[in-house]
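Appendix B. Raw example, untouched.
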Amino acid sequence: MSRYGPEYWDKYGSYRTPIAFHLSILVLLRTYFIWVIAALSRRPELDLMSLFFKSKNDFFIAIAIGAVAIVPTILFCLRRPRDSHQATKRLARIWRYMRWPLIACALIDLSWLSIQAAHSHYRFSLFLAIQMVIVLWVLWYLAKSRYLSVFFSDWPEPTEKATDKK
C-alpha cells in the first residue's frame, strides 16, 4: 500500500474503488440494465427493447457479450472483509485476474459494434458511434490505468474476528 497514500484507502485499509471502474461496469453490462428497465416498465405501447436492438438475435448476442463481465462484477460485489482467512485468500487469488475478462468483454463489445456498423453498410448512426466511443474509452481505461493494476492486486484483509479465532 505504499504506492498510493491514505486518501486512496477505505476504512478497511484497502484501495477505494475508482468511479470510472463503476462506470466501466455499467457500460459493459448496459444490456442487462436495459433489459431490467424494460421488464420493470409495464407499458406495452412502449417497446423499449426495439429502441436499442434491431432484432432478438442482436439482443441475445449483446447478453452473451455482457455475460463475460458478470463474474468480475460478482467478485467486485464480494470485495469486503471476510471472517475466514481461506475465503479471503481464495477470492484474492481470483480477483487478481479479473481485469482480463473485463478487457476481453470490452474488446468483444467493440468488435460487435463494428460488425453492426458494417451490416448497416457503414451509414452513420449516432447511437452506434456513441456506443463505440464509450466502449473504446472503457477499453483504454481498463488497459492503461495504473491505479487499476494496484486495485486488482488488493483485497481486503480478514476481520478481527478471524484473527481472534487463530
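End of appendix B.
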